[in-house]
Write a structure and sequence with these properties.
Number of helices: 4
Number of strands: 2
Strand order of the largest sheet: 1-2
Mean pLDDT: 79
Helix content: 55-70%
Largest sheet: 2 strands, antiparallel
Order of helices and strands: HEEHHH
Low-confidence stretches: none
Radius of gyration: 13 Å
Length: about 80
């Protein structure tokens, strides 16, 4: 069974939105200006929220492999 590219893209967007939904409380718990950042693994030059990454590193790497570095970093943004 061949899955169309549009369906794969839609699934990636949905998984990103679900990830943001579950990670937002972890990222929002830090006060403005005190958020701790880290280098994004596998995405040279990008910085992500350490709290969001530690809350669900498996989701980060899943997004990194399936939709790319920019989407994974966007889901784990500060």
């Amino acid at each position: 069974m061949i899955i169309p590219v549009a369906v794969k893209a839609a699934a990636a967007v949905v998984s990103g939105v679900v990830g943001i939904y579950f990670l937002w409380p972890a990222a929002a718990g830090t006060a403005a200006g005190t958020a701790v950042a880290m280098k994004a693994p596998g995405a040279a030059g990008f910085v992500i929220s350490r709290a969001a990454f530690l809350a669900n590193p498996q989701l980060y790497f899943h997004l990194l492999r399936t939709v790319g570095a920019k989407a994974a970093v966007a889901a784990f943004a500060l």
